[in-house]
Amino acid sequence: MKYNVLTSFSAGLLLATAITGGAYFVTKDDVQAKSTTAEEKTKEEVTKVAKTPTVDEMKELLSSSGYVVQSEEEAKAKETEWSQKVEEAKKQASSSDSGKVVYRTTIYVSNGMTSIDVGNTLKSAKIIKETGFQFSKKVENKGVEKYLKPGSYEIDSTMSTDKIISTIFKK
C-alpha cells in the first residue's frame, strides 16, 4: 500500500473512534435517566395493581368488552346441555343412517394435467374406484380427452363416472 492511503485509512479509523466514543459518553446520562423513569413506571404499575376491581366491576368490564361471563355452575350446566344435544344428534344420525358414505371434493385442474392425473386425484379422494389409467381410458373412449380445461370442479362419489367425465371434460 502507499503511504498516503495508509495514513488516510488510519486517520479515518481514529476519527470514527472519536465520534463513537463521544456519542457514548454524551448519551450515557440519558440511558440512566430512562432507567430511573422505568423504575418509577414500575412503582406506578404496582400501585395500580393494588387497586384491583371487585368481582362485579370485573364482570361489568368484561361484559362491556364483549365477553360472556358466567359462573362455574352455569358453565357446567351449559356443557351438560350441549353434550346431551350431541348424544341426541348421534342417536338420530345412527338410526337414519343408510350406511353409505358420500365423499365430496373440489378438484383443481391446472395447466399440463392429463386425464390420468385427474383420475389419480379422484381415486385418492375416494370418488372413483378404478385407477387413474382406467379412468383415462374411459375418457378416451368418449373422445373428450382434449377438452380438459383448467379450473375447479365440484365432484362427489354419488356421481356416475360418465357424469364426472362430462363435468370435468366440457366441450
Written account of the structure:
The chain has 171 residues and is mainly alpha-helical. It has three domains: 1-51; 56-95; 104-168, Endolytic murein transglycosylase (Dna Ligase, domain 1), CATH 3.30.1490.480. The chain has helices at 3-50, 55-64, 72-95, 115-124, 132-142, 161-168; strands spanning 104-109, 151-156. A two-stranded antiparallel sheet has the order 1-2.
CATH architecture title of the largest domain: 2-Layer Sandwich
State the low-pLDDT regions, or none.
none
Query: What is the H level of CATH, i.e. the homologous superfamily of the largest domain?
Result: Endolytic murein transglycosylase
Bin the strand percentage.
5-15%
Q: N- to C-terminal separation?
A: 77 Å
CATH class of the largest domain: Alpha Beta
Total of domains: 3
Which fold does the CATH topology of the largest domain refer to? Dna Ligase, domain 1
- The average pLDDT score comes to 83
The amount of helix comes to: 55-70%
**Helix-strand pattern, N to C?**
HHHEHHEH
Radius of gyration from the alpha-carbon trace, in angstroms:
37 Å
| C-alpha geometry | flat
Which sequence of strands runs across the widest sheet?
Answer: 1-2
Biggest sheet, in brief? 2 strands, antiparallel
Region (Disordered): 71-94
Biased composition (Basic and acidic residues): 73-91
Protein name: Aminodeoxychorismate lyase
Keywords: Lyase
